[in-house]
């Protein structure tokens, strides 16, 4: 493993360190919204750690107690990994970041650590590195979401809700449900709005501001971004304008 340093981002150093993603566009709305979101969530137990190689960021991990998590998973006394990303695989950096999370969760007396994965998108962490580090899959949800757990002791397992189809029912018009947990959500929302404009389609925005609201309304386990139209899921991650247009056009014709 190459020499590295772990740097925890907090309120004191946030302005200097900032988040890892979109750092090359640090004046963008998405980047600024993410940093504001970080600042407002540190007091809720959020931990954000960057891994540095030669003084440059090479990856990061973000995790938080389930009671403040942005993922649609029910449970108690678990740590939830929101994000894990490393610039170069094969250096052991992802495992080092996971180990840091496990150590923190143990120190807090938690029952374990959970993470959401999905093979269809890079907007969730990859599954393989978690299996390698001792996590096991305990549940699945629509759209290929998987729930993985690293349990420290015998305890009730976390679980997904089972009302996903019901969650889509209220949204006949194009609706974007979002938070600012991810800095790419602004670009994703803009692409969707641009595609909708080409179809003369109005867009409703629902800002998910509390965990209770997110648990109740989010159309997928990802939680922080979901697009629904004609009572069907359009996307839970960023689409290009072209892809969004094709998807919306197809659903509009099927109404």
UniProtKB/TrEMBL annotation:
<dbReference type="GO" id="GO:0016747">
    <property type="term" value="F:acyltransferase activity, transferring groups other than amino-acyl groups"/>
</dbReference>
<dbReference type="InterPro" id="IPR016181">
    <property type="entry name" value="Acyl_CoA_acyltransferase"/>
</dbReference>
<dbReference type="Pfam" id="PF00583">
    <property type="entry name" value="Acetyltransf_1"/>
</dbReference>
<feature type="domain" description="N-acetyltransferase">
    <location>
        <begin position="1"/>
        <end position="156"/>
    </location>
</feature>
<protein>
    <submittedName>
        <fullName>GCN5 family acetyltransferase</fullName>
    </submittedName>
</protein>
<dbReference type="InterPro" id="IPR000182">
    <property type="entry name" value="GNAT_dom"/>
</dbReference>
<keyword id="KW-0808">Transferase</keyword>
